Amino acid sequence: KYRYHDHIKLAHYAKEACDIEYDFPFGFKEVEGIHSRSDFDLTQHQTFSKKKQQYFDNDIDETTGKPYGNYVPYVVETSIGLDRMFLLILANAYEEETIPKEDGTNDSRVILHLPAKLAPVKLAILPLTKKDGLPEIAKELMNQCKPYFHCFYEEKDAIGKRYRRQDAIGTPFCVTIDHQTKEDQTVTIRYRDSMKQERVSLNRIKELVQQEIF
What we know:
Layout: E1 2-4, E2 16-24, E3 27-36, H1 40-49, E4 55-61, E5 66-71, E6 76-80, H2 82-93, E7 94-100, E8 106-112, E9 123-127, H3 134-145, E10 151-153, H4 159-169, E11 173-177, H5 179-184, E12 186-191, E13 197-201, H6 205-213
Parallel strand pairs: 9-10, 9-11
Antiparallel strand pairs: 1-2, 2-3, 3-6, 4-5, 7-8, 11-12, 12-13
């Protein structure tokens, strides 16, 4: 949403000004201010430095048939705060989703829909159990991937609870290592936003994640 300043509210150096506002959960707030400072800055600099700050425009004025000539350029100033932009990204990504269950009741989850490029953790690696050699396979995958992007390893609690925790911090991909992995070297990859799951080859995981984050 744009909000334009009235002229009576302008700073003395500004010819026009507008704010870019975002509709946060607590209402519209400014995230960026844009001011046309006209030729104020360069004219002041020209006055006190005694050096010309003019530009000669060779384009022809159709009404006179002559070049537009010398003028002092305008300065457009933009001011944006990193903290507000960070809050904007989080507010835009946050969702509390209700999920219908087969028994007619509802489940819920918190999701942070961060773009994969911005998510702090790119991939969660989750062995289905703490035994049968599954953690060893998971840690080997972790060692293969962590030089290239930030991974998170977790083996505590049921797999569904672990998925929910990763959804809440914005992790775009979860990989589950199960007993079938030992048989055919495939794993289940789960996508955060859709909750879709598919079996893919274990040795493709690094490539799949890199395609999304780079």
